[in-house]
Design a protein that fits this description.
five-stranded antiparallel beta sheet, 26% helix, 2 domains, 15 strands, Beta-Lactamase, Phosphatase 2c, domain 1
Length: 382
């Protein structure tokens, strides 16, 4: 086709309908704020979804007991550091993917919505406000919430009642359900087996593969004391399920022996782990092809001795694939620097503190992928 025959779209002001008419005709809620986060526009769909009429919200902030956004864990998002719209205006960059948040309806119920945000610029390119577009997800949430509960039950963690080590764990799927799977099991008095896997993608499809990994853990538990053999069997089993040539899982399996003071690790395309020893935090690279790619792959275990007060931090790639407003990635070195500055996360509270510092680096209020982080600190005196 001749490029000269392609006619450009006419400017909006020459169309036979106005921007207000266009926004009134869409089913997504749309609202606009100024730089002080005061609402200056509220479309008809926003009224229908939330129950708040435009006359009730214009000139007010959404934090003034109107929407009161929270994330799926219940964390308030109306503070400047966590408000997605405020971040978009400050950084000048919109959201790279929609976020799931919960908004307050006028009658008081919580409303699951998928939101996208973007700054608004004037003709000179200066940010003068922000726009949020949101979609009601209520009809999808009931089944997804039940699936989330089932998935969470499969991720077992032992009680922190062994004085020789301390566990910390955090799992946050990108959506309601996700493609990460992690479990820790005490085998006997001195040994613990653990696994952290990340299925390609996120959402419902990835979560189904992740749940299958749980069944493979159970069916191969006789091999848990032999890391390389266990990983080889896991890969062979997963290859029988994954036949589309596109799905795979990165994975790290470990066997802790407190008597021998060693950790036997077997990697399958997993990110590096972090070893905290003294005041230094260093990455340790792991070799091995991801699971589900080649059925005849043989895996090897790597033995790492540990000392008293050492810490090991394992994580899915969602922890390091964070980008700031300039596109710079946090990476493994950046995460190691955060651990060195803020301390090793050997409790769930310290893990949450580290995660907050990670998000402050980024331009988003949440991670771009499913996130699993597992920390263990050894308290075995010589």
């Amino acid at each position: 086709m001749d490029d000269r025959s392609i006619q450009p779209y006419p400017p909006l002001h020459t169309l036979p309908y106005t921007a207000d008419q266009i926004l009134a005709g869409i089913s997504h809620g749309v609202y606009v704020t100024d730089l002080e986060r005061r609402i200056v526009y509220w479309n008809e769909a926003a009224e229908k979804i939330t129950g708040w009429r435009a006359s009730e919200v214009l000139g007010r902030s959404c934090k003034d007991n109107i929407l009161r956004h929270t994330d799926k864990e219940g964390k308030e998002l109306c503070g400047k550091e966590s408000c997605p719209l405020h971040r978009a205006m400050i950084t000048g960059a919109g959201s790279t993917s929609p976020s799931l948040v919960f908004a307050k309806k006028k009658e008081g119920g919580r409303l699951p919505v998928q939101v996208s945000v973007s700054p608004i610029r004037n003709e000179q390119g200066t940010v003068i406000g922000g726009v949020e577009v949101f979609q009601d997800l209520s009809l999808r949430m009931r089944d997804l919430e039940r699936a989330r509960q089932i998935q969470a039950l499969s991720m077992a963690m032992p009680a922190n009642d062994d004085p020789r080590l301390r566990w910390a764990f955090h799992y946050a799927p990108h959506d309601i359900v996700g493609g990460d799977y992690s479990t820790v099991e005490r085998l006997d008095q001195n040994r613990y087996a653990f696994l952290l896997a990340d299925v390609m993608g996120h959402g419902v499809a990835a979560s189904l593969y992740a749940m299958h990994l749980h069944s493979l853990w159970e069916s191969n538990r006789r091999l848990l004391d032999r890391p390389a053999t266990f990983m080889t069997a896991l890969n062979r089993n997963l290859c029988q399920l994954v036949r589309d040539g596109e799905s795979f899982a990165t994975c790290l399996f470990g066997l802790i022996d407190l008597k021998d003071r060693t950790v036997a690790l077997c990697g399958a395309g997993s990110p590096p782990l972090l070893l905290r020893r003294g005041k230094e935090t260093q990455p340790i690279q792991m070799a091995g092809l991801p699971l589900g790619m080649m059925p005849k792959t043989e895996y090897e275990a790597r033995l790492i001795p540990f000392c008293h007060d050492d810490g090991l931090l394992f994580f899915s790639d969602g922890a390091i694939e964070l980008a700031d407003s300039r596109g710079n990635m946090l990476g493994c070195d950046g995460l190691a620097n955060l651990v060195s500055r803020h301390g090793f996360p050997d409790t769930d509270q310290k893990m949450l503190h580290l995660i907050e510092k990670m998000l402050l680096f980024s331009n988003d209020i949440r991670f771009p992928d499913d996130l699993t982080m597992l920390g263990v600190r050894f308290l075995t005196e010589a």
